[in-house]
């Protein structure tokens, strides 16, 4: 039985090569000489035979049209992909006025840096929480042959792959970790951005495109869980603050009892020690100012 996948032809990967072209300034001189020749022939129309004048004019017109049809202009960071009847002949990256055979097709491709901000998309993170993400990507064409011949529309291809890469990275990590024990999208922005760039470079290599810089421009919980997550963060913050407060209060109580015993200020039994610890903890951990009660009797009244 024949495997259908093995029978399918493999994608032929294109590769950029240098095209054979000429400087346009030399051919511009040829065009000027053709104009001069036609002018000289017309000025000598009474002195030479008519067939010589007509032949000279026809040759000058043909040369002029031939030369003018081959001109094209390349600006900095711009390339021209040259084809002959659909066959790739090469790429010209030399800036300025250029010239190639008139029957060659020249398609200009920008190799400048392009900046794009993707649409906000909803992604489920590693824990299944819906989050909203958007990325900013700086990309440019490095291989013009791959960009034109290996994908249908390389600009649309970039947009689709950016969305796919953002979804992949977003589902690979949790949005946040309240225990700070693992890599998260919010807490490790630079590391995740570097991984996103690597993912995009790998995806866009088939189109001859590289990524110079990328990062997240929007990262937040989706609206349906944003309120619940905010309350959770507030609760976590309150618990952390209380924990710090209690740890500090316990240390202060321990220090107070140790100094009272060391300086022989007062001798307390276990019951009175427990009462003093309770009172000190209430004073130190209370959210309101305490109201002191003055005891005018003995310690045990």
UniProtKB/TrEMBL annotation:
One of its GO terms (biological process) is proteolysis. It is a single-pass membrane protein. It is found in: Membrane. GO terms for molecular function: peptidase activity. InterPro entries: Band_7, Band_7/SPFH_dom_sf. The chain crosses the membrane at residues 22-42, 51-74. Pfam families: Band_7. Its main location: membrane. Keywords: Hydrolase, Membrane, Protease, Transmembrane, Transmembrane helix. Residues 69-237 form the Band domain. GO terms for cellular component: membrane. This is Regulator of protease activity HflC (Stomatin/prohibitin superfamily). It comes from Sphingomonas kyeonggiensis.
């Amino acid at each position: 039985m024949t495997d259908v996948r093995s029978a399918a032809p493999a994608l032929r990967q294109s590769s950029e090569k240098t095209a054979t072209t000429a400087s346009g300034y030399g051919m511009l001189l040829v065009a000027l000489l053709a104009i001069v020749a036609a002018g000289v022939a017309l000025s000598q129309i009474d002195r030479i035979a008519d067939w010589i004048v007509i032949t000279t004019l026809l040759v000058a017109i043909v040369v002029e049209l031939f030369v003018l049809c081959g001109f094209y202009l390349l600006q900095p960071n711009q390339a021209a992909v040259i084809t002959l009847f659909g066959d790739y002949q090469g790429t010209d990256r030399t800036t300025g006025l250029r010239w190639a055979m008139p029957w060659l097709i020249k398609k200009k491709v920008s190799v400048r840096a392009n900046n794009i901000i993707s649409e906000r998309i909803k992604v489920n993170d590693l824990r299944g929480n819906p989050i909203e993400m958007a990325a900013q990507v700086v990309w440019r064409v490095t291989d013009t042959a791959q960009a034109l011949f290996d994908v249908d529309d390389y600009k649309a291809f970039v947009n689709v792959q950016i969305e796919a890469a953002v979804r992949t990275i977003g589902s690979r990590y949790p949005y946040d970790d309240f225990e700070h024990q693992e890599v998260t999208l919010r807490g490790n922005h630079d590391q995740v951005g570097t991984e996103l760039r690597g993912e995009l470079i790998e995806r866009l290599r088939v189109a001859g495109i590289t990524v110079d810089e990328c990062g997240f421009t929007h990262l937040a919980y989706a609206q349906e869980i944003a309120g619940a997550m905010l309350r959770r963060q507030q609760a976590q913050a309150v618990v952390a603050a209380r924990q710090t407060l209690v740890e500090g209060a316990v240390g202060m109580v321990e220090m107070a009892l140790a100094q009272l015993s060391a300086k022989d200020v007062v001798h307390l039994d276990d019951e009175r020690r427990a009462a003093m610890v309770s009172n000190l903890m209430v004073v130190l951990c209370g959210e309101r100012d305490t109201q002191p009660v003055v005891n005018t009797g003995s310690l045990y009244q």
